[in-house]
Each structure stands twice: as structure tokens, then as C-alpha cells.
Amino acid sequence: MQKTFIGKLTKWLVPLAAITVLAGWLYVAPPGILGKADSIGYAVCHRISERSFHIGERQLPLCARDTGTFTGAAVGLLFMALVSRKRSGMPPRKLIIPLALFALIWFVDGSNSYLYLMKQTYPGSFDQIPNIYIPNNTLRLLTGSGMGLAMSAMLYPAFNQTVWQKIDPRPALGSWRDLGLLVGAMLVIDLGILTESPMVLYPIAIISPLGVLALLTLIYSMVWVMIMRQENAFDTLRQLWLPLTAGFTMALIMILGIDLFRFWATGTWGGFPMGQAGGY
Predict the structure, then answer these.
(1) Buried b (16+ CB within 10 A) or exposed e, 22-32
(2) Which helix (H) or strand (E) holds 169?
(3) Domain limits of the chain?
(4) 234 and which of 175, 192, 211, 239 could share a cystine (Cβ 3.0–4.6 Å)?
């Protein structure tokens, strides 16, 4: 009886909370579609201008590395949603190695880039530690893209393992062909980004923040399912509307909270200046 009452209550409260939080975020975020995209990037990225791509004078919502990471995550999730459906198996060992290598390269390039920034910010302080190479936005984009693909390859099957009643144990990303298609698609997208053509950058300015929302929504939806003790209780995507709505709402609450705190602390929607940032 109590579970039935709680279930009925959440079916009303969750949509009401979603509408309220969405309205609050739309009110707080800068105007326009790109302004809303900026507010998502503002919550997860340093947005240093020098480390970002630009459409003319306008900076993209995410830095070069995060543009690659969250575009890669969006592409990976969309690919598996179309091809793998309810498959819940983690990548086989043969694919874990290149995916782990993507993550390692991301870490190495990020660490090297962070060290270079510290040397610029505090001259003379880190001269005893040599940089492996001079970082640049091309490497940030490419290594970020690899990390985004790796993240999606792990998150998608984890989500399926959590929600579906009838689990398909086959790997969501199970073959060299699948991985090759993903990597090839991302290379084409990255090469397009590197042209810095507005025809490419405008869609990417929307897709990459949507990648942020997609990742956070899936993570928080899993959290919601576990809190409500509904693991492996769903058969169709339609039945997932409540957990996905709850996950989306919690993702927006996180974004809105960080946005408000950062704006309160800095007084600007812009990125951190180079001299004050700890960006990677």
C-alpha cells in the first residue's frame, strides 16, 4: 500500500519538479539557443577562451577537450542506441585495451597541458618539470574525443544492466567493426571541427552540450532507479519515462546549482581568464 502511494505521488511530483527546474534554468541561463548551450558548458568546463574553438568572435560552449569528450560521448551513445538496443554486456577484452588506451592518452595530454598552463600562470615555479610537448587544441580535441567514446562504451551497457528486466548479455560494443565505425565517424567530425567552419561549429555547439545532458541524465536515472529499488523492472522505453524525467531533472538541478554558484563567484558567464584558471 505504501509503495503504491509513493509510486503515485512520484508520478505527479517528478514532472512538476521537472517543469519547475526547467523554467528556472531557462530564466537564469543567457538568452538564445547558444546562450543555453553556454550555461551547460559553464557548469562542467573552465571555458578558457584560448583553449576553445570560436565561431568568429564567439566562443563555443565547451573548451576544445570537452567539445571532443562530450561530442564523442553523444556520438557513442547514439550509435549504441541505434545498433545495440538493450545489449548490456561490457566491451570484450580485445576492445577494453584500445578504450583504456584512449583514456590513458587523454590523461597524459591533460596532465601535460595542465603543467604547461601552470608554467604560464606562475613563471619559474615548475621549470624543473619538463613538458613532453607543447599542447594545442588539436590534441585536446582528439584526445577528448577518444575519452568520450570510452565513457559511452562503459555507461551505455551499465544503464541497460540497471533498468531492463530481460537483459541481453551481448556486448553493447562488441566488435572491431563497431569500434572502427565509431572512431572513423569521430575522426571525420573532428576534422570538420578543425576546419573551424561555422557550418560545422554551429551544430557542434549544440551537440556537445547535449552530450553533457545525455551523460548526466543516464547517470542520474540509474541513481533514481536504485533509490526507488526498481532495478531490472522495465520492459519498454515508454516505461522509463519517469526515471528518465527524474534523471533529467537532477541533471538540470546540478547544472543550475553550479551555474548560480559560479556566476555569484565570478560575476560573468565567460570563461576563466588564463591567469586564474586551472584548466586542462
Answers:
(1) eeebeeebeee
(2) strand 168-171
(3) 37-266
(4) 239
